[in-house]
Amino acid sequence: MAATTTTSLPPQEHNDVDSALGSDTESLTQTITAENYRYRYLDNGRSIHPFESAGYLLPNDEREKHRLNFQHGIWLTTLDGRLYLAPLKQDIQNVLDVATGTGIWAMEFADKFPSAQVIGTDLSPMQPNL
């Protein structure tokens, strides 16, 4: 296994109130803490998430973001431009994207279904800030 180093950012204040009880903004952001940004760096300079027990070894750097977005494009081509194959109601309300990566699928899905609340989760906060 490649050697890793850990980079720490200044601690951020974290409100540990149950997200189900907080405001919409709080519930969308409160689970992200400074720990999420303490990326580990491999000998080859690639960064990975800080959670050693997670068992996910792919990086989370710019090169990986480009690869994931390229992969998304390949899937869109393969699926004739469709984001999904499941039969969905047009008024779908809640969507969960597990291992959202760059968030490109979740954002495109949300654009297609503006009434839906789309939530993307991932080990690394590498999605754009909206």
In short:
This protein is of the alpha+beta class and 130 residues long. Helices cover 25% and strands 14% of the residues. The termini are far apart.
Write a structural description.
By secondary structure, this protein is α+β, with helices and mostly antiparallel strands. Helix content is 25%, strand content 14%. The chain has helices at 24-29, 62-78, 104-112; strands spanning 4-6, 40-42, 47-48, 94-98, 117-121. The strands form two sheets. Strands 1-2-3 form a three-stranded antiparallel β-sheet, with no helix packed on it. The model is unreliable at 1-29 (pLDDT under 50).
Query: What overall geometry do the principal axes of the alpha carbons give?
Result: globular
Low-confidence stretches: 1-29
Q: List the strand order in the largest sheet.
A: 1-2-3
- Enumerate how many helices there are, as a single number: 3
- Give the CA-CA distance, first to last residue: 36 Å
β content, as a range?
5-15%
Helix content: 10-25%
Mean pLDDT: 76
User: Would you report the number of β strands?
Assistant: 5
Secondary-structure-derived class: alpha+beta
Radius of gyration: 17 Å
Along the chain, the helix and strand elements come as: EHEEHEHE
Q: Biggest sheet: strands, sense, closure?
A: 3 strands, antiparallel
